[in-house]
Amino acid sequence: MSKISRRKFLAGSMAGGAAVMMTPAKKTFAAGSFEGFPDGMGVLVDLTRCVGCRTCEAACNVEQNLPEPAKPFDDYSVFDEIRHGQKRRPTDKAYTVVNRYDVKDADQPLYRKIQCNHCNEPACLTSCFVNAYKKTPEGAVIYNPKVCVGCRNCMIACPFHIPGYTYHSVLNPVIKKCIFCYDTRLKEGRPPACVESCPQQVMTFGKRKELLKIAHERLRKNPGKYVDHVYGEKEVGGTGWFYISNAPFEEAGFDTSLPKEPIINGVKDFLAVVPMVLAIWPALFTGFHLLSTKGKSHGHGDDHSHDGQEGH
Amino acid sequence: MVNAGKQLMTGLGVLLLSVVLAAGCYAMEDFPDEVEIDVLANLYEGVVFDHAMHVDMTENCADCHHHTTGTGVSNEYCAKCHTGDEEMDTVSCQDCHSADPVSPENFHSTPEKFKYHDDQPNLKAAYHLNCVGCHQEVGGPTGCEDCHAKSEAGEKFYRSGEFAPKEDAHHGSGH
Fold this sequence. Notes:
A: three-stranded mixed beta sheet; two-stranded antiparallel sheet; 8 helices; B: mainly alpha; Cytochrome C3; 49% helix; globular
């Protein structure tokens, strides 16, 4: 029975460390530079068209078999609801909500539908340590509730505060959010229920890349009508749902401070170091320790390994 | 006083212009007085559209009919190609606007010669954008049920009326 020699040990730990480093290195290059699947679908949302009828909310409720709402979907008093100083946001019982914003110097209030924006590089997916999330080639960000452990990391990671949580569930609380009607519609190439139900065609469904052209065309064809920006074209690396508006986006409740880069870019350098630290450091420092203690071990009478080595 | 005079002149000018344009519109005597719009009726009943009243109110048929009535074109963008168009055989919304919801299929099936129409709203949106858009500008009714009553399917869909969520069950039991 031969003990590992110092040379072998160091060589082995270096090779192992290198192997660990090589594997995630490939992934790190891909992350942060992904511009969406070529045929990924998206939705162009034209805020100038929304009249706040809440039909999309009702359609979502029916399509996704969500529980009965607290108020009817034609009750517009919900626009005055404020919880924790905030307007309504999607929950586990309502994957989409419409809010009203009073815009300065405008005759009409502005209404905005909120739901998952289906990012090209979703922060929720990045943050999920059980890999429950998936960005499908069709463009949806879906998740597997069966593996969700209810840690709520994605709720913190999401730059749009979208994922809801089944707080009422004591034993198995999980995340719930808009899935672009993936299971029932998107998979078959059909638009989500909210898009189809909208009387004003606030939302236009199509390939993300083509919709971007249409969005810019609308800005070009209607000079002075829109703010010259497509929110979601570049924000957080691009989102599947993006917006054009006649009011400044910050007045419509959008976070205009979001980076143009995917959220993962803020952490990927750090994340790439983690496997290195976990795999190489223990080996390396154990090696250092063994090296540095080898000579001194004569002084310690209780060093059995050293005694054993003497026998060779 | 100068301002008031100016306003009066502008007002008269607008009035004259609208009379001229309206006369052009009236020249085609064969428009219907009433149109029942019910091809999409489902969650709401159909709309009985008082066409005659709207003809009286509007300055130009093209305000709603774009370029199909042969009465000029009110939208600058459409005017680039359609100025001087004759009246077309088909002037109703559904003749051009597809009732199909937007799908990737009809996204790609757009014929090349209609490329300027590739952002055309579907029929449901064509009705609503045209009507509600104008009503917002001129102060007309904009509530859903101002124009069409909710059907029973609609009440169920919106969870309203008899399908409304039970108001606070705790209070209900106390009575």
